[in-house]
Amino acid sequence: MNRPLVHTSQRLLILALLMTLLVSACKDDSTDGGLDLFGAAPTQLDSTTAQQVASSFLDAWKDGDYPTMYSFISPNARAAFSQDQFVTIYEQVSDVVGLRGLTWNISNVLVEGTTATVSNSVTFETSKLGTFTDPATEDVLRNMYLVATSEGWRVAWSRNDIFVDWTNSSSLELVNTLPARGNIYDRDGEVLVAQNGVQMQIYVARQDISSFDTCVQDLARTLRREQEDIRATFDKYAVDTIFFIGEMSEDTARIEGAVLQSSCQADLRPRSTRQYYDRVAPHIVGYIGQIPAGDTTYEAQGYPADALVGLKGVEQAFEKQLAGQIGVRLQIR
């Protein structure tokens, strides 16, 4: 009479074991199909995994592995930039600066809900600019922004993740630069020519001017040009374009500067220039001016297109010594 009861108990025990195995199998399936970031538990979106993703992105950049970098950017960023476009941007940056290598540092990770901010700096080793760090100063923050996605943390990428000041609407280029031109002294150490003069450059835009006729009159008087010439210069530019229309001495600026700022909404920008002292005949000292049209020798030496060079006398004969070492800078505009 008891044997059927024992048999029933055994069946219940086997059934319980089968249910336990089934539940375990379901849990394993759920884990396999869930989010697994670098061994982290499913749906773990914290500062640790954010730093891991940012580190992997920066390491891939260090290795020149742009496709891997692309895999770490957000779906929205991938919709805005194809992989080919993304890779081309990084390749062009590498070519522009002559990238030889880079190192990076993460200083802080802040997670707020479904976003993470990763403060970092990147040091570039280049053939054209030497070694430099972005950002250049500690008071400027370079932040990489991460967003939570179905893939885990992903970089909300933009060109700011290359250089902090670079936006999607700006361009990147290397610009040759000249230091301040050297002074010229006589045998007794008296200054004949010094780079201590200042000219005030005048920039205007038609759309900012309320009374165009008054502005033209003031510019013509200040620059000693005909009004028709001033009007013709304006006609060359779109109404919203800010352009250079001329320059005046500091003395003139003290008298006319406020007038032009009022009538033309002029932007006055100081420019360092040469100061000549009347101690030697002008034809001996010489003078400087724009590179003569058709002269390509200066361009071949790396002079900027708008450089002022010695054209006569000592200024021309000692151009190399007075001009100094031509440099280069990275310009974002």
Q: Could you explain how this protein is built, in words?
A:
There is one protein chain. By secondary structure, the chain is of the alpha+beta class. The chain contains twelve helices and 13 strands. It has three domains: 47-168, Roll (Nuclear Transport Factor 2, Chain: A); 171-190 and 279-333, Penicillin-binding protein 2a (Domain 2), CATH 3.90.1310; 196-273, Ribosomal Protein L30, Chain: A (2-Layer Sandwich), CATH 3.30.1390. Strands 1, 2, 3, 4 and 5 form a five-stranded antiparallel β-sheet that branches. Strands 7, 8, 9 and 10 form a four-stranded antiparallel β-sheet that branches. A two-stranded antiparallel ribbon has the order 6-13. The chain is extended and about 80 Å long.
Order of helices and strands: HHHHHEEEEEEEEHHEHEHEHEHHE
Radius of gyration: 33 Å
- Unreliable parts: 1-10, 12-42
Briefly note the structural class of the backbone: alpha+beta
Strand residue percentage: 25-35%
> How many alpha or pi helices?
12
Report the end-to-end length measured between terminal Cα atoms. Answer: 96 Å
